[in-house]
Amino acid sequence: MASGVCSLGLTLTSLLSSHALARHVVLATLRWRSISISMSPPLRISRALSSAPISSSSFTWDDVIETGRAEYTTPQYSSDLTGFLQKVDRCNRGSERLAEFIPFVIEEQLVGYIHKGFFTEHLREFHDIFTFAQNGSCRDRVGDYVTLNPMFQKPEDRTRAVADVIKILADKVIIPGIRNELYPVKSSFNAPVLFSLERAAAPYFGLKGYGVHMNGYVERDGQKSLWIGKRSLAKSTYPGMLDHLVAGGLPHGISCGENVVKECEEEAGISKVIADKAIAVGAVSYMDIDQYCFKRDVLFCYDLELPEDFVPQNQDGEVESFKLIPVAQVANVIRETSFFKANCSLVIIDFLFRHGFIRPEQSGYLDLYRRLRNGDCS
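Structure tokens predicted for Nudix hydrolase 20, chloroplastic-like isoform X1 (378 residues):
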């Protein structure tokens, strides 16, 4: 073997074949050390997508409550997990298109995937910033990949250079919805930050994304209820859809716990004294390809039991209103409609497992549990 070896646990050539890419992107933790080189039941279409003419953002709280109560009183739905499986699949689309993406590499670390047609053509205009390698120095053992000009050796230099590109692409509406929020670019959660990138651009570079989602619940007379938010219609993403009480992406320079406390105050008016009691309970993950964007997200899940008399008050204008709904009814809304922002469904389904609302006796139990962590949790 040549002295320059691509070590991802396999040669890069095999990784870049469509079958190997699909297998290893989904199932393995990818580490680039050198670039020198189910048997589930049929899914039933949800009511919101079939007989009910309600669009994903035009529904009211009355629609939500009616759906929850109607299905809650129908016994045959109690053991039916197919609606939940459908919501998991909604967050894991496009695996058949993995071969359309090529690796994005920084400092010999695989940090993302870029669509090799649409988006790379735009990046080629910035040849002083982006470099397109073909076969590298490993000859036939290495495939194509994108990297940054080696003149940018420091993270802050890379951040500035790429930010200039993102601004131009945003002005051309190639990357819409700029948030002026930086995400860290790294190969895995605990890896060093190689540079920072505008949050809206992260899916175009196929970066690992991290976020925190918190289930805020109340228990009264042995019955658990979840506080659910309805997103503002002014939101640029998923306006008017249902959401967690508290959730947010994990920006550069802040820990998960600190972010939970910050988002608690901004989104629900929860004091630090109460927010500090939130319990980290695990993570869910997914990998979703939508046209030219590749989302590889890990959501850290938190539970917070709230006082019975607590009423959330949004502080940042991103939430239209809140409603406290029994967990069993929330489960039915997820199963039967598309009212929730897609990735929120995963976190709530995880909550249903942990709090005994989904049980091993139900068909598809283990399949659903496994698919909640369909992405690379690294």
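The first helix runs from residue 12 to 16.
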